[in-house]
Amino acid sequence: MVTLRDSENLPALLQREGIDITMFTDWFQLNKHDTTARTLTYAEIPKYYVRHEKPKLGPQEFSELMTVNKRIFSSFKEACFAYGLLNDDKEWTHAISKAKLLLARNPRVVKQKWERFVRFPGSTTTYPKLVTNMDNCLIREALDFDMNQSKSRHQQLHSLLNPEQHLIYEHVIQSLHNQEGQFYFVYGSGRTGKTFLYKTIIAKLRSEKMIVFAVASLAPMMQKYAFEALDKTLRDILGYKNPEKRSMIFGGLAVLLGGDFQKYLPVIPKGKRADVVQSCINISELWKYGKVFTLTQSMRVNKYYENREIETQKHDFNKWVLAIGDGTVPEKTYPDFTTRQHDDEYLKERAILTSRNDDADVINAYMFKKLGGDSVAYNSADKIYKGSTNTLDQHNLYPVEFLNTLNFPSMPPHALCLKKELPIMLLRNVNLRKGLCNGTRLIITDLFDYLSKWVEAKALPTNDARVVCKFLKSLFARFGAPRAIISDRGTHFCNDQFAKVMQKYGVTHRLSTAYHPQTSGQVEVSNRGLKRILERTIGENRASWSDKLDDALWAFRTAYKTPIGCTPYKLVYGKACHLPIELEHKAYWALKQANFDPIITGDHRKVQLNELNELRDHAYENSLIYKAKTKRLHDSKIKNRVFNIGDRVLLFNSRLKIFSGKLKSRWNGPFTITRVFPYGTVELSQANGPNFKVNGHRVKHYFGGNVPHLDCPDCEDSQFCHSSRVSHPQLHLGIRYPNLID
Ligand SMILES: Nc1ncnc2c1ncn2[C@@H]1O[C@H](COP(=O)(O)OP(=O)(O)OP(=O)(O)O)[C@@H](O)[C@H]1O
């Protein structure tokens, strides 16, 4: 094959050396001197030969290709027939003669076979005359109806048309008679009689021997491109003889479409909402030429009398039925929701079902807004299950912020917003494959805060009932009475006086059991934290622990709590509260920045910075003096920590408890930051091991000095749980405050 580009000059190309040698002519050359090659077909040659070899035997010239059994044919085609490579028309002839025979016996079957035969590709070349003499079978099919039957059908249907249908009918028929070639669209919700109207129009036209192509309905489901292609094709075909038809919509043919956009939309595989909308017929250029009619009477609801009056009591119901799908579903399904929301029967007898979760979310959000009261958000704690992937970068690939955006079917969203008195449905046994889904409808009666981790503690001289009750009353005065209190079974909680106080304040008293330690889990965790702080602060003189309790509590409330993602103080008061030592860090940093000699002033601080927890514990002693000052200073000056590549940092090792002794620091390093990722993750390098990633919360800047060095194999647990936003204090110390479901 010789290819010729537009830019190439044909005569010059023909002069090119070697142009007359092709693979095909090479095959001749091969056959001239290779007897084996002569036994092979042209297609088989590449199996045994590569082309750069000199050809030997085979056909040596074109005339040889036309020779079959020593007979020379006048064309390649004839030679091919003689080789048996092409079929001839014998089978067609044979079929036709057979059809002739059949025709005598069973004309209907023959007619069908005949049409199939004539439509078969290839037959056109064999019997061009035959085809031109015949009509298009589609046209014949379209005309293959009983006119009288159509007439009577038309009469019957026409008499039943309602006023809206009648109006459309008149328009369409008139424009057809006037050969205006309009494009109509009948818009109507389900059961408004669209199909009934089409049938009437079709019966009318067929009764007048006109051709109607009734194509399947559901125009809104078809993409606009299908109609645009039809428009162009009709303009081309009909404009061939009448050029003025090229400028007419659908080439001047009348086209009637109809459907319900609320029910059907085009299906775009993997398409987004915008893609679907963009492919609708009403976005097409054609739409502006169309005339749109609307049917508004549901024929399922209404009954028309002969005088075309509608039964009056069904007016409202008709309106209601049609309004469904107009964006008013919640209003229509739950009328007077705000006044009737407490009526169980009202809630029981209605529900909105949607086929898409997105729609359910929209409806829920709408109804949620209608319900008064404060909303409480319960956030999920998303975390990658490490066993499911070996990827090193999994925390960067799937940061928690990203996981939180995912919405899976049959799982609640990351932020579950609830309100008191909200009706909810508890779904169980959800197994879509088996069609299983049991739902129990519930109403939220209260929402609780388990999360602030606020701790109230007091050193009591004795733990008898009187002292405990006094303490409780002081708490009630500050925070209000709780709904319930959980305590252990100590005698100071289980006595008459305590019971009386509980009764007076309307508090339910619940006892935890030794067999279910989880009941007091939160309290135990908080107590442990407090004890640890106290152990560090009291030094050798353990008797002074009650003096240090206030400071320990302050430290506890201002310490970062992984489960809540901030400090209890911030959670309760909405702003940060810092310990004095943190301001000293800032002061040190400021000294360094201001170019003072940092060596002398810094030496003392380095020890403190490298052992932050211990320094904090020392600082608690000074806390009373610094309290007021630090808060003011902090709120105005504290900045976020920013880590850059190359920074030297210390890592807080929360897991490894290999440093025994209370004065040992749980910070180790220093490490160097090699990468900084979005969402606060940093990659650290270490001298004797691979680089690893940790959450920025776990590192702090290193300013110098000695720190116990440790390789860090435990570097993966860098994600923090994200939890709810809450605003009420919760008390711990043997009791849990202020919440518990009765
Ligand atoms: N004018 C009429 N008189 C009597 N019955 C009618 C009339 N119009 C429609 N109907 C009847 O109402 C029912 C619904 O009509 P039809 O199927 O034409 O509605 P549709 O709009 O095409 O519905 P869908 O969009 O759901 O397909 C049918 O049983 C039809 O025979």
UniProtKB/TrEMBL annotation:
Q: What is this protein called?
A: ATP-dependent DNA helicase
According to the UniProt record, what class of enzyme is this? isomerase
Needed co-factor(s): Mg(2+)
Lineage top rank: taxon: Eukaryota
UniProt keyword Disulfide bond, yes or no: no
In its UniProt entry, the species of origin is given as: Tanacetum coccineum
Q: Which residues form the Integrase catalytic domain?
A: 419-576
Q: Which reaction does it catalyse?
A: ATP + H2O = ADP + phosphate + H(+)
The UniProt family comment states: Belongs to the helicase family.
Alphabetically list the UniProt keywords.
ATP-binding, DNA damage, DNA recombination, DNA repair, Helicase, Hydrolase, Nucleotide-binding, Nucleotidyltransferase, RNA-directed DNA polymerase, Transferase
Record-listed E.C. numbers: 5.6.2.3
Does the UniProt entry include the keyword DNA repair? yes
Q: Which GO terms describe its molecular function?
A: RNA-directed DNA polymerase activity
One of the Pfam families matching this protein, by short name: Pif1_2B_dom
